[in-house]
Design goal:
The chain is mostly helical. Helix content is about 65%, strand content about 5%.
Length: about 80
């Protein structure tokens, strides 16, 4: 069962790290950014939709865990 957790973790990690630059680029192109101002600490426009990549990683990890079959009692 430990291998199933490792597979789910690895899939989540790879998907999240792979999608983060893509989501960042799409956010900048579409203007989905927070502009700096007096109340913000960042100095340049910062994308605020990084949760999309994180959520995709979580969903992919859950899917991988379910496909392994070792975690059927959880699902």
């Amino acid at each position: 069962m430990n291998a199933a957790y490792a597979v789910a973790f690895a899939v989540s990690l790879l998907v999240t790290f792979s999608l983060t630059p893509l989501v960042l680029g799409a956010a900048v192109r579409r203007g989905v950014v927070v502009e700096p101002d007096d109340r913000k600490v960042h100095l340049r426009p910062t994308p605020n939709v990084g949760g999309i990549a994180m959520m995709a990683g979580v969903v992919a990890g859950i899917g991988a865990a379910q496909l392994t079959g070792a975690l059927d009692d959880v699902f």
